Description:
Distance between the termini: 72 Å
Number of strands: 10
CATH architecture of the largest domain: 2-Layer Sandwich
Bound molecules: zinc ion
Number of helices: 11
CATH topology of the largest domain: BirA Bifunctional Protein, domain 2
Largest sheet: 7 strands, mixed
Structural class: alpha+beta
Strand order of the largest sheet: 1-5-6-10-9-8-7
Shape: elongated
Radius of gyration: 38 Å
Oligomer: single chain
Amino acid sequence: xxxxxxxxxxxxxxxxxxxxxxxxxxxxxxxxxxxxxxxxxxxxxxxxxxxxxxxxxxxxxxxxxxxxxxxxxxxxxxxxxxxxxxxxxxxxxxxxxxxxxxxxxxxxxxxxxxxxxxxxxxxxxxxxxxxxxxxxxxxxxxxxxxxxxxxxxxxxxxxxxxxxxxxxxxxxxxxxxxxxxxxxxxxxxxxxxxxxxxxxxxxxxxxxxxxxxxxxxxxxxxxxxxxxxxxxxxxxxxxxxxxxxxxxxxxxxxxxxxxxxxxxxxxxxxxxxxxxxxxxxxxxxxxxxxxxxxxxxxxxxxxxxxxxxxxxxxxxxxxxxxxxxxxxxxxxxxxxxxxxxxxx
Length: 344
Ligand SMILES: [Zn+2]
């Protein structure tokens, strides 16, 4: 008797699963649960059995019936969903459409676009160049001879398995100035160019250092260019970018590829010069390095320094982004967490 109930259950379930139409499903239901259905007939036989076995079989019969009814309901729902999604299914064309969620530009891209626009308004062109570079363009053309102590400050990442034509290992460029030599070799002065891009250093990452960061470097070549042209350009660009209230300060420095050289500071955008933890209470933030292009660099690119002069500069763009949006950690710029990115 027990086996008969289980057999009826299994037979019903396999037929229900295979049913492809509502009509077929209804017929199966009658075949098992109808007045003369297989299950109903079997159920009636319980009353003819001895009293002591009836309760156990009654429990089993109830379980079998519930299982079969649930299988019917589930399959009926599946078939009705299938009909809705199928060809020729009815749907309400007047319902509003689903709006796809739109992304937006990364704060780094927003800042880059703004800087490019400011330089374009001054007549600068935009150039792009390789991030994998030879020692020649990254160092030698920029007056960094081999064994020059300034190379130590550049924490260079060497690509040992990727040699250049002369067998020297290529490197990941340590500054955007690698483009300086490449551009000056090709152009006929006068020219004004900026070349934004990523640079790499062998650095331990922390709130203000990354092993990969953005710079916007550039140069201007012309006759009779002086240091005051450089000062004026920086004052204009930084006031356009941070606001007219911003003050700019220059401090003497030393770079092998410029002479004289300067570091450029702006009033801290967080505290407006009053002093805060971001600017280490000084009120000033270093934003760029610059200087008049060294005659040796002009010479290496085949340009006569007696006729042509120029200035070159490099903005720490990642620093500009963090300052503009008052972020206290550089690593937020490479964090893919949408909770951060949706704030811009
Ligand atoms: Zn400050």
